[in-house]
Amino acid sequence: CGLCEEACPTTAIQLTPDFEMGEYKRQDLVYEKEDLLISGPGKYPEYNFYRMAGMAIDGKDKGEAENEAKPIDVKSLLP
Fold first, then answer.
1. Residue 57 buriedness (CB in 10 A; 0-12 / 13-18 / 19+)
2. Are 47 and 56 in contact (CB under 8 A)?
3. Based on the number of CB atoms within 10 Å of its own CB, is 72 exposed (0-12), middle (13-18) or buried (19 or more)?
């Protein structure tokens, strides 16, 4: 249905119409890291996890990174 793909904040879940990873035995569904690696940028090549995830960037304060909102001062919201 795609709900898990839409809800994933890091775009780690990507649904595709490919069925090459389908198996009949449960043990065959246990993948090692090498089995899951892809060659290429994936479904969303413009997505940069570190830019979107709020990870600290050297030389920049919170709210100064690309696509990052300034921190909200909750005390300034008081009536």
1. middle
2. no
3. exposed
